[in-house]
Design a protein that fits this description.
alpha/beta, single chain, 333 residues, transcription, 6-stranded mixed sheet, transcription regulation, 12 strands
Length: 333
């Protein structure tokens, strides 16, 4: 008979895996109605406190938010890979600050997690402390940190190759005939932004390049597009697809067209990118490969595990050409 997992109960009871874990462990903090519902579903599925297979290692997944569609995509793939590896998962969302992230990690550890995967966490920001990561590693918790690398920490780091990503986007725009190109990114103190800007400065002539620092949101892309268009750019590379969609909206609000008046390249390849009008040319993050590597890095997590030596993995992105890039208007025809 197949093992009943926490996620199976959570889905049927319409609650979080963390709630299921608390109920089955007999911990407080869950109201009576929810507790009864979880226990009823657990019994229905053949899993009770005395018959639970709790031998499967537990892995925590920490996400900064669910507003950017790339994060649900990461979560879906991480949970799929964890399921395939026979790992239980608990998810913590909205770790938007160092304190929130540290609290989330502590809750996961108290729930029994022996490994934690963080996507675009505080490790990506130069100005935040890594003390809570070090404390986890010293307690034997395996850490895998996605999209960001920090010195002085024994963990697995996995990132998309930002240098290659920007190079692919710029080469595409160069071949189309663009001369003045802009880069739209977020906080200049973050690891992904530094990598993208360094690649942009390496691969595009300084006198014909412009950088707009906003944030990785729709509004950030909107603002960046206005700035870059005012500086004479005929094309822009965005640090996220959300930014790219905002940029397209800004160009339209100026009474102009994409790609005729401004070519736009995104970054991520969220599901909407292919269905947007026009369909978005973008850099595809290899989310399945990243998720697979991340789960493998913590898959041996047990009560006796120790943090693995520091390891850094860089995964190759892919350029996906769709409808938001074309030769600049003055070169057509």
């Amino acid at each position: 008979m197949a093992k009943v997992r926490l996620i199976d109960i959570a889905r049927k009871a319409h609650v979080s895996e963390a709630t299921v874990s608390r109920v089955l462990a007999g911990k407080p903090g869950v109201n009576a109605a929810t507790r009864d519902k979880v226990l009823s579903v657990a019994r229905l599925l053949g899993r009770t406190n005395g018959a639970i297979d709790d031998a499967a290692p537990l892995v925590g997944l920490v996400m900064p938010n669910m507003e950017n569609p790339i994060f649900p995509l990461f979560l879906e793939r991480l949970e799929a890979e964890a399921y395939a590896a026979d790992l239980e998962t608990l998810v913590s969302i909205n770790a938007r600050s160092e304190a929130q992230e540290a609290a989330s990690m502590e809750r996961l550890i108290r729930a029994g997690a022996r490994g934690i995967v963080l996507v675009s966490g505080q490790h990506a920001h130069d100005e935040t402390s890594i003390d809570h990561y070090i404390a986890c590693a010293e307690r034997g918790i395996k850490l895998c940190l996605i999209n960001g690398v920090r010195p002085g920490l024994d963990a697995s780091f996995i990132s998309t190759d930002d240098s290659k990503a920007v190079f692919l986007a710029l080469e595409h725009l160069r071949h189309l005939g663009h001369v003045r190109v802009g880069l739209a990114v977020g906080d200049e103190h973050s690891w992904p932004v530094r990598g993208k800007v360094a690649a942009f400065e390496e691969h595009w002539p300084h006198e014909f390049g412009c950088v707009a620092y906003t944030d990785f949101s729709f509004a950030g892309g909107y603002q960046a597009a206005l700035e870059l268009y005012d500086q004479g750019c005929t094309a822009m590379v965005c640090g996220s697809d959300q930014m790219a969609l905002g940029a397209i909206a800004a160009i339209r609000d100026l009474g102009l067209q994409v790609p005729a008046d401004m070519s736009v390249v995104g970054y991520d390849d969220i599901p909407l990118a292919a269905h947007h009008t026009p369909a978005l040319t973008t850099i595809r993050q290899p989310v399945p490969a990243i998720a697979r590597t991340a789960i493998r890095s913590v898959s041996s997590a047990t009560g006796e595990s120790r943090q693995a030596p520091r390891a850094v993995y860089v995964v190759r992105p892919e350029l996906v050409v769709r409808q938001t890039t074309s030769p600049p208007a003055n070169t057509i025809g």
